[in-house]
TrEMBL record:
Residue ranges of domain Alcohol dehydrogenase-like C-terminal in the record: 180-293
Cofactor(s) required for function per UniProt: Zn(2+)
GO molecular function, one term: zinc ion binding
Domain Alcohol dehydrogenase-like N-terminal: from-to ranges: 25-133
Species of origin: Nakamurella flava
Pfam families assigned to the protein according to its UniProt record, in alphabetical order: ADH_N, ADH_zinc_N
Domain of life the protein comes from: Bacteria
Entry keywords, A to Z: Metal-binding, Oxidoreductase, Zinc
InterPro entries in alphabetical order: ADH-like_C, ADH-like_N, ADH_Zn_CS, GroES-like_sf, NAD(P)-bd_dom_sf
Protein name stated in the entry: Zinc-binding dehydrogenase
Family listed: Belongs to the zinc-containing alcohol dehydrogenase family.
Coiled-coil zones: none
PANTHER family: DEHYDROGENASE, ZINC-CONTAINING, PUTATIVE (AFU_ORTHOLOGUE AFUA_2G02810)-RELATED (PTHR42813:SF2), ZINC-TYPE ALCOHOL DEHYDROGENASE-LIKE (PTHR42813)
Length: 344
């Protein structure tokens, strides 16, 4: 089968690799209809120590089940499914509490050993899916493949971040970063009843998109002044950092109100951050981190799209064929598109 693989030098190529096949009774094999290129793909390529040459990339996919193991009971050959970006057993103590990312059996598709044990990715004609009953969910009726491919990671991440803030209807929510996750955080926050969403982004085209989709979009150096005007000087009730690392977290602390909440959902570019503990204590701040979890949140995420409350195609993704995948990566790196889909 054909797949997008790491070339060993931080780039990608399309290559022939062995067909995906069932290895365990809980596995399924999915024939991929749509895959997507994600910022996490770019991150692991830029820091590719855990990404051997020849690794099949990608973790966002939707497709048709073509084989199931003997232990699979929730899916059948022919089902149209969306996959989570990682697999988990679904039955351990962590999974039962909704913390699938902490599952000892967790495997992240297409990222080598960057986030744990390796699992071949989904930018391929076929993908093996461990723990298929937990990892796959049926595509909601009426939802196209182009929309469904966002469910398992990008939209699930935006949803997890907004829900983790505990934002209430009418709250002012600030979102830092106008990349795909930031844009979808903005849409989810609006769908969940935020009074105002302020999206902070230096790139004009990304601000324009956010404003078109209902946010108040501002450059970073104007964010505090605009926020003060919206909140009588209090600051945001909740801030979602979709940038990650020191830059995003420091900015978030500059925008959140007293007794407010900061949630970071961006993959951190740095390993450490000096948290202003005295400020956090005196102002009673809540600080948290979130990883998208489609295994837990598939039903509400799917409902947001099926109902039309959130349309991930607002991002205006570029769609290419499998053989054009290297160009898709270049378009993402050069910021010529927010998101690229690979059609099979």
């Amino acid at each position: 089968m054909k797949a997008v693989v790491h070339d060993g030098r931080g780039g990608v190529r399309v290559a022939e690799v062995p067909d995906a096949e069932l290895l365990d009774p809980g596995d399924a094999v999915v024939r991929v209809r749509r895959a997507a290129v994600c910022g996490t793909d770019l991150h692991v390529l830029a820091h590719h120590d855990g990404l051997p040459a020849g690794t099949t990339l990608g973790h966002e996919f939707v497709g048709e089940v073509v084989a199931v193991g003997a232990a699979v009971s929730a899916h059948w050959v022919g089902d149209l499914v969306a996959g989570a970006d990682f697999s988990a057993c679904g039955t351990c103590w962590w999974c039962r509490r909704g913390h699938h990312w902490e599952c000892p059996e967790r495997r992240f598709f297409g990222t080598g050993t960057t986030f744990g044990p390796a699992l071949a990715g989904a930018q391929a004609e076929l993908v093996r899916v461990p723990f298929a009953d937990a990892t796959l969910q049926a595509v909601p009726s009426g939802v196209s493949a182009d929309r469904a491919v966002f469910l398992g990671d990008t939209l699930a991440t935006g949803y997890a971040a907004v829900r983790r803030t505990g934002a209430q209807p009418g709250d002012t929510v600030a979102v830092l970063g106008g990349g795909p996750v930031g844009q979808l955080c903005s849409l989810v926050a609006q769908a969940c009843g935020a009074g105002v969403v302020l999206l902070v982004e230096p790139v004009e085209a990304r601000r324009a998109l956010a404003a078109q989709e209902g946010a108040v979009a501002v450059e970073p150096d104007r964010a505090r002044a605009v926020l003060d005007g919206l909140t009588d000087g209090r600051g945001a009730d909740a801030v979602v950092d979709a940038v990650g690392g020191r830059v995003g977290l420091d900015m978030a602390f500059g925008l959140v109100r007293r007794a407010g909440t900061v949630v970071s959902v961006g993959v951190p570019a740095s390993t450490e951050w000096a948290m202003p503990v005295e400020r956090a204590f005196v102002d009673e701040l809540t600080v948290g981190f979130a990883v998208g979890n489609y295994l837990r949140d598939g039903a509400p995420v799917g409902a947001l799209v099926r109902s039309g409350l959130v349309d991930p195609l607002a991002l205006g993704p570029l769609t290419v064929g499998l053989d054009e995948a290297p160009e898709a990566y270049r378009a993402m790196i050069d910021r010529r598109t927010l998101k690229t889909l690979i059609a099979f």
